[in-house]
Amino acid sequence: MSSYNDSILTILIFAPLVAAAALAVLRSEHALRWLALLFTTAIALVSAPLFWQFDTSIADFQFALTRPWIPLFNIHYAVGVDGISVLLVLLTTLVMPLCVLASWRYIKVRLKEFMVCLLIMETAMIGVFCALDFVLFFVFWEAMLIPMALLIGIWGGPRKIYASLKFFIYTMSGSVFLLVALVAIYLQTGTFSIPEIMRHEFSHNFQKWVFLAFFISFAIKVPMFPFHTWLPAAHVEAPTAGSVLLASILLKMGTYGFVRFSLPMTPWATDYFRPFILWVSVVAIIYGGLTALAQTDLKKLVAYSSVAHMGFATLGIFALNQSGLEGAVLVMINHGVTTGALFIMVGIIYERLHTRDLTQAAGMGRRMPVFATFVGVFALSSLAFPGTNSFIGEFLVLKGGFEVSIALMICAVPGVVLAAAYMLRMLQRIAYGGTNNPDHSKVADLSAREVLTLAPLFVLVFWIGLNPQPFVTIMKPSVARLVEQAEREKVQEARPTAVQRVRITGISVSSSR
Amino acid sequence: MNTSLAFLPELVLMAGALTLFVVTLGQNTGAAARKTALFFAIATIITTGFCLRQDASLFFDAYRVDLFSQVLKLAFACGFALIVLLSGNLPDIREDIKAEYYLFLTISVSGLVMLVSSVDLITLVIALQVSAFPLYLMIPMRRERAGQRGQMESAIKYMMFGIAANGIMFFGMSYLFGITGTTLLPKMMPKLQAMTSSPIVITGMALTFAGFYYKLAVFPFHFWTPDVYQGASNETAGLIASLPKLGAVAVLVRLISLATPDNSTVAWLLAALAIASMFYGNLIALAQKDFKRLLGFSGIAHAGYALLGFVALDTAGFSAAIYYVLGYLLMVLACFIVICKVSADGVNVGIEELAGLHHRSPMLAITLAVGVFALAGIPPFVGFMGKLTLLSAALNKGFLTLVIIAVINTAIAAYYYLAVIREAWFRDAGNLTPIRLDLPTRASCILLIAGIIAMGIVPGRLLDTLSVSVAKATGAPTEIVLPALAAGPHASH
Questions:
Q1: Would residue B490 count as lying in a domain?
Q2: A77 touches B at CB < 8 Å
Q3: What whole-number distance in Å separates Cα of residue A256 and Cα of residue A263?
Q4: Residue of chain A with shortest Cα separation from B394
Q5: Residue A151 contacts B, CB cutoff 8 Å
Q6: B361 within a domain of the structure (yes/no)
Q7: Domain count, chain A
Q8: Are A66 and A76 in contact (CB under 8 A)?
Q9: Which parts of B15-89 are beta strand (E)?
Q10: What does the mean pLDDT of chain B come to?
């Protein structure tokens, strides 16, 4: 089994690339669709054992593999996953076949390039979550920009070029600072190895600057409140699969960056800047909610709801305690499931009506009972209805947040109400509409393919909602160690908003090797 | 050591030039001249590869053949072959002077090849002029069009700026000679190092560098760049944009190493020029409509990036600069191969005329995308790895502000590079006639793409070779090659 353990991540990272090369020589569109589906499903199936084989008793990186890559700079090809990233890898491999299915009829031109771009994206996304070498991480992180910009720019809506350039330039301007931070850290430590850098103690001033560089880069990717303006543009113009990838995976990279880099590498600066970031997160929750409430374009509505949800994720992360972080990781997964599904729903509406306007979609549910059921479930999930997945995540985040500051939480809680308001408004319009709905008599209900696309996400909504324990168990040791790492240097011991130190008894927090 | 073998690549190139001279005596010998040039280019690649490990001092120590020079000669030979390939049948050069074009091209390359071996100021100047004079002639060889004689203006500009820069360089060299009493760089070095902070040394060095700033298009010696790129024919611009810059960086390594190990005035001077070049090039490139002008301004910015390596004044920095310019050679040639093929009759290519390229020729569109994204510094291409090495070299010497300015410039530059991608990939235009590529062009495209990706993901061997050869060529002890590595125990899993 050890060869499986060593090579599984490498296979997952490069299999999509090989598949892309295989697709590049095909001619038949029919074969392209089926093969792309086959490849992505196969990759999803190959990744599935990660979930069961993951050792939930230790916090170390598992399935790890390290090989020298550029010895001159001490750069390694190092991959591995901990309890947090393994979930994100699984989410990625799960979402990919759904993206292919959602593009089945949606993409009409240059299908081959589209599927190749999707598969290259998969390589980059899995690579980002698995990389344990800073340069390797950065290569995947940046390489993703090219296929994503192409996805938006070629197959997008009317303002696709604007949206594509905005996405690219925003993200790139953020990540150049990440590059500086990366080089600066290397010059301090002499290594690019992420686990080793985590163990290194940096001076406070150094941490402050590195944290800011990290912050710009990751905050743009999340996107956090003042940096979010690329998101609605990109979401609105991107094709369905592009929106799903953006929402489900790409946004997670920002929060994953905070978890993997900011907290463990710059603990002092994290604590120093924490109040600021917590408040920005609350602003994002409220702002995203209010803005979503005012949208009539369905994609914009879901896009702004993403800003709010990611606000919960950053809130949980910077609560810096066990339940906050567990909640944040769950919010990340849930948002990937629910918002991905909502974007697929919007794509389904668009394929039928050729518009995403809420008023045009009014009353669709009367003609499409199956569709209405799915919209209902995913909308309820998005507003964190008890029994669905998001409830668990947001509950844990709020619990973690209350341990930090009650004032903060009093400001954040209206966000939950806002979520209910904008989601129920959308649901009411789509499912029932008013008395003078547009004529939907020719609109067909979901096809078997569309049901198949949504079914896995539907199952996950209730699986995580009713039985979150397996997911929490997987991430628990890693989160516990993260809390440990993030708290090793506090600005001052007795802050007014000091976090209750979370006990992590019974868990071996190994510093390994 | 057999010294005649060490000089073999130069001899092959000279034989090529002589043969081409004979070819030019006939009539309508353009095609024959092309084949001859290509033959000698390939012969040069083979002989240089064969002489890669040669080590010799020729002509009373004025001519140094070492790993450093041989690696660069190999790059010149490959670039020479690529330029002959991408220039096709020279659509924009008059039929009766096509043979002469190849003659001058060969002479210019032979000048560059000698330039990287020169370690004496006089040899250096001669080699520099041998490489430059043919270019002065190749620019106005472009066909005249109704209402456009831009090539004449460009040629005059290129020549005047060249002469002015050379004048400044000679003035500086006279100082260096006056202080040290020698023209041999290896003898000059210890004498200058003993008096690094003296104003006359710094003035002498700063003025000497000017001649090579001009070749590299560093601010404030950049003024010729956009006009010459625009006025010269596409192939000539491709040549001017690529090989001479590599030559300039190579000589700058030898010259700036005079200021090592630590001359803060020179370092700050270089940093100031780097900043000015980056901002000037990138900001003005934002407004360009002509693809060659855009590449001209971006070239100024890239010269600024390359200077980041020199700022460090150590082997890591120098080899990073060489590595970057080697990568730049591939990236810019990838762009120029697209320009040459898109413009069938040799006219300039506006950025908007790239619209629909993905439809007209997927191969060219991919080559362009790889080249442009590499120029923008996106991994996994060489532009990223080059920047990483440059930034770490500069940061290692504490130039944090400079590094931050450089990355801000990278972000600015992304905009105009994306504008090129936007046209080629996102837009469809009326003109959708497919572009047919012949086999050599396809092969060159694939080679360039492979080279750009390979240098981006497996730079180890080349970087190793470069830093060893640079350390030898600049007389630096090899231990300081990688100061950063000494900082901590590394992971050896």
A1: no
A2: no
A3: 10
A4: A183
A5: no
A6: yes
A7: 1
A8: yes
A9: 56-58, 63-65
A10: 87
Q: Is residue A501 part of a domain?
A: no
* Dihedral pair phi/psi, residue B61, rounded to 5°: 65, 10
Instruction: Name the residue type at position A437.
Output: N
- Best CA proximity match to A189, nearest among A207, A177, A201, A178: A201
- Which of helix, strand or coil describes residue B93? strand
Count contacts between A and B (CB, < 8 Å). 120
A464 touches chain B (CB under 8 A): no
A82-106 confidence digits (pLDDT tens):
989 999 999 999 999 999 999 888 8
B489 to chain A: nearest residue by CA?
A: A190
- The beta-carbon neighbor of B426 closest among A145, A153, A188 is A153
Helices (H), A267-353: 267-293, 298-319, 322-353
| pLDDT tens digits, A189-243 | 988 999 999 888 899 999 999 999 999 999 999 888 888 889 999 999 999 999 9
Query: What is the predicted pLDDT for the residue at B275?
Result: 94
Residue B379 phi, psi dihedral angles, 5° rounding: -70, 155
State the Cα–Cα distance between residues A130 and A16, nearest whole angstrom. 15
Domain range holding A76?
A: 2-486
Which residues in A lie closer than 8 A to residue B454 (C-beta atoms)?
A: none
- Give the span between the Cα atoms of A93 and A47, in whole angstroms: 7
Please give the DSSP secondary-structure letter assigned to residue B64: E
- Amino acid letter, A143: A
Say whether A233 sits in a helix, a strand or coil.
Answer: helix
**Residues from chain B contacting residue A149 (CB–CB below 8 Å):** 418, 421
Average of pLDDT values for B105-126? 92
Nearest CA in chain A to B403: A180
Residue A56 is assigned to a structural domain of this protein: yes
Residue A294, in any domain of the structure? yes
**The pLDDT of residue B301 is above 50:** yes
Q: What CA–CA distance (Å, rounded) separates A356 from A368? A: 17
The type of residue at A240 is: T
Alpha-carbon distance of B267 to B260, in angstroms, equals: 10
Q: What is the DSSP string of A81-141?
A: E-HHHHHHHHHHHHHHHHHHHHTTTT--S-HHHHHHHHHHHHHHHHHHHHB-BHHHHHHHH
Indicate if the pLDDT at residue B485 is higher than 50.
Answer: no
- φ, ψ of residue A441 to 5 degrees: the values are -65, -20
- Give the best-scoring range by mean pLDDT among A120-124, A436-440, B152-156, B411-415: A120-124
Q: What is the largest CA-CA distance in chain B?
A: 68
Pick from B389, B403, B414: which is nearest to A172 by CB? B414
Q: How far is A193 from chain B (nearest CA, A)?
A: 7
Reported as a single tens digit per residue, the pLDDT across B246-260 is 999 999 998 888 877
Domain residue limits at B378: 3-143+150-482
Q: Is A6 near chain B, with CB under 8 Å?
A: no
pLDDT in tens, B28-83: 788 888 889 999 999 999 999 888 887 888 888 888 888 888 899 999 999 999 99
The yes-or-no verdict on residue B483 having pLDDT over 60 is: no
φ, ψ for residue A58, nearest 5 deg: -125, 155
Task: Considering only the beta carbons, identify the residue of B403, B487, B488 that sits closest to A180.
Answer: B403
pLDDT tens, position by position, B367-390: 999 999 999 988 889 999 999 999
Residue of A nearest to B427 (CA): A154
Question: What are the φ/ψ torsions at residue A510 (nearest 5 degrees)?
Answer: -90, 140
What is the pTM for the complete model shown?
0.89
Nearest CA-CA partner of B389 in B463, B449, B457: B463
Query: Residue B147 — very low, low, confident or very high, per pLDDT cuts 50/70/90?
Result: low
Residue A250: its pLDDT value, please? 92
Tokens (6 digits) for A24: 């590049």
Say if A131 falls within a structural domain.
yes
Number of domains observed in the structure of chain B: 1
B96 domain-assigned = yes
Mutate to test the interface with B, among A66, A72, A145 (most CBs of B within 10 A): A72
